[in-house]
Every structure is written in C-alpha cells, then in structure tokens.
Amino acid sequence: MDKLTDLERELLELTRVHIQNEKELIDRFERSKLKPINLKTKKEWVSENFELEEKIRELLGERSESLKLQDPLVRDQLKKIRDMKSKTRKYTADIECSELAITLGISEDKLMQLLSDKKFLENFKGISEIPSANSELNEEHKIIESQELDEMIDYLTSIAGYSGDFHERRKRFGTVIVDKSLPATANIFLGEIKDYFLLNKFEAVIGFSRILLEIACQNIFDQIPENYKENLRKIDGEFGAKQKIREACKYRLKRLGQNEQEINKIKKLAEEKYGEASDILHGKLPGKTEGETLDFLKDVFSVIEALYSNR
Question: Could you confirm whether domain 182-307 is CATH 1.20.120.330?
C-alpha cells in the first residue's frame, strides 16, 4: 500500500471525526422531531461540523492528485462532501432557509421557489427594503441591510452550487475526485484541469477531461490480453478511441465483478462524455457554464472512480 502524505493523513483523521459528529447530529435531529428545538440551538449543533466540513474542502483544494485513502467509509463521506450531500450540509441549509424565510416573512416553500429562480436572484441583490408578508413580524425584520441580505443569499446559493467565487471554485474542484490513485500521466492532466477550472477556462477543462478519460481507459486497454484484442480486430478493424473506451470499461468492470447493468451504465456514460467533449471542441455543441462544467467533470471522474475502484 502506498504511503499516505501528511495531507492525506490529516484528511483521513478529519473525515473520521466528521463521520462521528454527523452520527450524533442525526440522532439529535431525529429526537428533535418528538420535542421541537429552536433554530438557535439547532444552529449550535451543526456549526462545528459544518466548519470541519469546510476545512476538509479547503484541504482537498490544496492537492491536484487523487487520494490514496483505503477506508471505504471515509471515501464515501468525502464523496458526500464533494457532492454537497452530507447530512451536516443539509441541516445547515435547512436552518439558514428557515431563518431567511422568517426574516422575509414568507413560507419556506416560497423561499425555495425564489432561490431556484436565477432571474429573481439577479434582480433581488442589493434591495434593502423587503415588504413582509407577515404582519406580525417586528419592524426590524421588515427592513434589513442589503449587505446582510446579500451575504445570506450568497451563502444559500453557494450551497445550491451557484457560486462563481474563485475561492469557492477551488474548494468545489478539490472535492471532485476522492477515490483511487490514477496512472501517473493522468494525475498530470488532473492538475491542468484544476488550473483551468479556477481560471474560468471551461473549454480547456473539457478538452483536458477528454484526454484524462482517454489515458485512464488506455491504461486499462493495454492490460487486455492480445488474443482477445486480435479477435476484435478481425471483426472491427483497428481500434478507435471510443472502442478502446468501451472495451476498457467492459474488461475492467467485469474483473471487478460488476453486473451487466452497471457495466452498460458506466460504459454508456464514458462514451457519452467523450463524444460530448469532442463535439464541444469541434464547435458542434455550445460551451458550458461553470456549473455545467463541474457536472461534466463529476461524470468523467465517476467513470474513472468506477474503473479504478478496489472492489
């Protein structure tokens, strides 16, 4: 087993603490369903673990290579943190939404509708006087500082994945791939992808992602027995990039014991992402936004994680 770096050891330790804290949080919130607890108390419950989660994301943003962590619980938790689907983040978002809904004097359902409306958010920023729908709210809740409101909106939309801030992009990218080690050449391109993502060069990110997918699959394709490849050549001729990707996925996932449905799912996703990247680079498809690029990367890396997992 490869020796862990200091950063990996720190991530391992912090993530295990995060997992334990989250178990306690889940238990507390379940018990609060029977005995209602005020928002201030709930916020105190989650704040420490949320700060720890942000620290983990900061650390992930400091490296360009995939992690060599073997603990499956830790890898699963890092993936949840990566996808912003941890229970800690959900509880935090729920609390912040409740607080903002109270401030604006609207229901939480209405607030969530508004937060999903990007046009509304663009028009809403900077407004200082908020007409309240709740006549019983105190006057101080009817007018709030625009800066405070902007901060609350920024916080919630960043949780929803809309933030364009460089610092936030750095953390978000750092959590994209957390599983197995990749071929050395692939890790080089992972660093390039990170740099271009932070600089808003999304077309370059797509291009290097295509190369990364090719390299990861080529590394596996080279392991396929020559007699098997020779039989394929007699049927299909020389291998193109897409066929190498297909065959690499089939070969590796079968060896990992995956069922036919999972093999077809990963193989289809790999082909789709490779084809989509090619069409974007050749001008057949429009470029992607930051959020779309991050989703594209997650799809590419989910393929790579599936191929290089240690089942």
Answer: yes
